Amino acid sequence: MIVASQLWTQIFWTSAIAGGLVAGLPLMFTALGESISERAGVLNIGLEGMMLMGAYCGFLGAYYGGNQWYGYLAGIGAGTLSSVVMVVLCVWLGLDQIVVGIAITLAGEGITSVLYQTRFSSSEPRLGDVPGTPIPLLDRIPVLGKAINGQSPLFSQPLVVYLGLAFAFTLTWIFRRTNVGLNLRAAGEKPEALDAAGVSVLATRSYAVLSTGALTGLGGAYLAIAGTGGFQPFLTQGQGYMAIVIAMLARGRPLAVVAFSLMFGIALSLSTLLQIAGINLSPEVVNILPFAAIILALMVFARRAYLPPALALPYLRGAR
After folding, report:
1. How far is residue 292 CA from its own chain's centroid?
2. What are 65-77's pLDDT values in tens digits?
3. Which of 264, 276, 256 is nearest to 14 (CA)?
4. How many degrees, rounded to 5, is the angle at CA 186 between CA 181 and CA 190?
5. Measured between alpha carbons, how far is 192 from 214 in angstroms, rounded to an integer?
6. At what angle do helices 10-39 and 201-222 cross, to 10 degrees?
7. For the chain, what are the domain ranges?
8. In contact, 280 and 3? CB cutoff 8 Å
9. Which tens digit of pLDDT belongs to each residue from 150-170?
10. Cβ contacts of residue 283 below 8 Å, gap of 6+?
11. Residue 129: phi, psi to the nearest 5?
């Protein structure tokens, strides 16, 4: 009865949603990027490595620059540079996207681990707390506006959280209402028709992959700067693969990406929520729960997942 009563407290539900935002935002940025790439017909399996590159460079930017925005810019730059490998090898040269993606992941894991251990193994520096930007009046909303320690965790998030949510709405409009969105869809469904219309398929896919890298790097940087306040080897712990699943389950709909990211973010923050509810579970069980949520979501929604017909297929002009 005590546990059940704790599960229904305002503090629990406010902390659940706030924790889902903190843990889910890296997934959201990365999955939005993957949605762009998949829509254009490129399956980016290297998200894990790109996230790690973005996380490490974002940590460096915030640590040496003394400002979180330097870190975010550094993460975006690192993710974009990492995606150049995918553009050259897969989009331009037509190599296997899955093999190249796995290579990018392995390279990202190895490079970031070696660089961090070489430079910071003894000091293991930490970053300061990221200030939140409160939204006036929203703290009066029942349950969700519950203040904890004098602050409203749900409606006092870092500014990049609000910018990310705004970007999801903007991306929805781009997909549905602009020629850019139409070209992306054509590149993934009927690339030969896009080519016949005079639009370069290779250029469209290249820009899509570069956008994926930028967003993935931003997601990794946010994870290091605002999520954990530092960097450690293998920081992402499979979140890049989670983002691929989210993008497929969302069927190319950015707002669905936001919803799934929040859901899996709550699963990733379960350790804190269980402590609030007074439930003691072993760390091994807690670490398994997010991946169990992924499997459950696949069982429920996998049949509705959408993959463009030309996904992971290289485009050769004039080929049939």
Report:
1. 19
2. 999 999 999 999 9
3. 276
4. 170
5. 27
6. 160
7. 31-120+157-252+300-304
8. no
9. 555 677 788 999 999 999 999
10. 271
11. -65, 145
